[in-house]
Structure formats: C-alpha cells, structure tokens
Amino acid sequence: MHIRDEEFHPDLQPQVSALRRMARLMKIPGFVRLVDWYRRKEMGKDVESLDCSTRNIASSLDNYPIRTRIYRPKNSVGPLPCLVYFHGGGYIMGVPEGSSELIRRFIETRPCVVVAPDYRKAKSRPYPGGFQDCYDALIWARDNTQTLGCTDRFIIGGHSAGGGLTAAVALKARDSGDVSPVFQMPFYPMIDETQPSDPDRNIDPPVWDTGLNRIGWSAYLKDVREGREELSAYAAPARASTFKGLPPTITYVGDKDPFYWETQTYVERLTGDGVEVVSTVFEGCYHAFEYIGDGGDIGALAQKFTFDSFAQYYDRFAI
C-alpha cells in the first residue's frame, strides 16, 4: 500500500521523498553491503565525553572474537548498573559506534556501564550467529562485573533489529535462568518474520519498508530456510508461546513503520501475560524517524519518551 507524503507527520514530510529514494537504493543487490562497509569506517571511534574501550569476547558457538565496545562515564565512583545495548540495522548492517550518540544519552540520563557487541550480521553468519553473540555479551558482562565496574543489575535494550535481539535475549535469559535483566527496552523491535499478504501491511514508508524487511529476514534466517537451523522464538520472538516472566518493558513505534503491527501485538501479549509495559505510538511516523534526518518536534518527543522512561525504570529497578 502506498502511503502518501501528506499522511506522514508534518515535521517529517519535507524529507520523505529523499529518504524513500534511499530505501529504493538499498534494494539494489550489493548496495546494503556498500552501506555496511561505509558504516564500518566508524569502528573504534570514541565518544569524547566517555571512557571508551574495546574487548573481544569469545563466541560460545565457534570461538569467534566478538568485538565489543564498552562505554562508561568518566570519573565515575563505585559500581554502576550495566546496560547491554544491541544496535539496529535489519540484522544485515551496522556497528555499535553508529549508536554512540544514543549510548551517550543513556549514560548522561543515568550513570551506567554500556556493553555494546558488534554482533555478526547475516552475511557473516545468519541466525543463530547474531543472536548468540548478543547473548554471549550479556553472559560475559555478568561474569566480569568487577572488571567492568558494574553491579549485577543488568538492563538490555536496542532499536529495530537491536530491539528484536533484545526480545530474543530476554526470552533465553528467562528460559535458562542464567541472568535476570531488571528491565528491557526493545524499541520498535524486528520480531516477526512472517510477511503480511494484506495490502494494508505491505507499505512503502521511508527508511525501512516491507520490501527491505523481507530482505533482512531472508538473510538472517537463511540457514533456517535451508534446513540447517530450526526456527524458534530466539530467531523470531513473536513466535514465543508465552511472555510470562519477562522483565518490565519500555517500547514505542510509529504507526507508519512496518513494525507497527508486531510491536502492538507484542505489547498486548506482554500485558496479557502480566508484564509491566510502558509504551506509546507516534502517529504519522516511519521507522527511526527520531534519529534519521530531521525529526523535528515529533522526533524530539520520541527521544524524550526514551530517556524519561529509561530514567524512571532505572530509578525503580536498577539501583
């Protein structure tokens, strides 16, 4: 279904055409790899206001060294809660350094140590590669609290595919009992691999549309579809039979985002299973509207929701 420019929030309309062109380019074979190559030029870039370092964590799958960025406030005193953050990128691109501004904002909102793995993207190793890399980063943080200078109060979060990985990691942590995150933040999470056939859900907003969603899932679940791996809720968290026992949750989504329907279903199921949820919907907003391009006042409002909600849950659950 085509979404007309005037259907988007007024703050976003001036950039819809340009961002739609980028979404079309990303469907050209090889273009996503080019974008990912360009983004990887940020690797190792520090945030001036933070103490930044890099560690390699051995993957429990194959001993692959998971390059992991660690951020903490300068001159911090005493152990701090730990946020394990998973960056977005449709399971096919991105590096944690691309989320450094977000990470800085989290740390400035409430002091914490941030562990951000550069998990493997689908072209390197499809599921369970990225998922297990993220889970291994959480377990590594749990086992290295003294080295990290953090407490045993773990928060997990991420945007888009990072939100999907957050939801998946939360499920495995619950099922295994290995660690108990005090809350999770799967923002507009990529959690449902099924692609809608009804026209209302086959949409063409800027940044990330239904066509790109198919590309992302096809790459991430390549080994599943070729019979080498089983499809489980750790691959696509919407498949979970129950969400009981998951930690308190913060999320939001725009109603012009392909993830709108699955996010709303996720919120409804979490609530129905007794999980405390803080969520909202931003009308007329496409995917990542608050961080890509000029989000205007509506983008600032989404960012305020993010960091205000983080502060409230941090004060209640992390200290």
TrEMBL record:
Keyword Hydrolase: yes
Keywords: Hydrolase
Matches recorded under InterPro entries: AB_hydrolase_3, AB_hydrolase_fold, GDXG_lipolytic_enzyme
Single annotated GO MF: hydrolase activity
Hydrolase is among the record's keywords: yes
UniProt cross-references to SUPFAM superfamilies, sorted A to Z: alpha/beta-Hydrolases (SSF53474)
Any Pfam family hit: Abhydrolase_3
Domain called Alpha/beta hydrolase fold-3: residue spans: 83-289
PANTHER family in the cross-refs: AB HYDROLASE SUPERFAMILY PROTEIN C4A8.06C, ALPHA_BETA HYDROLASE FOLD-3 DOMAIN-CONTAINING PROTEIN-RELATED
Protein name according to UniProt: Alpha/beta hydrolase
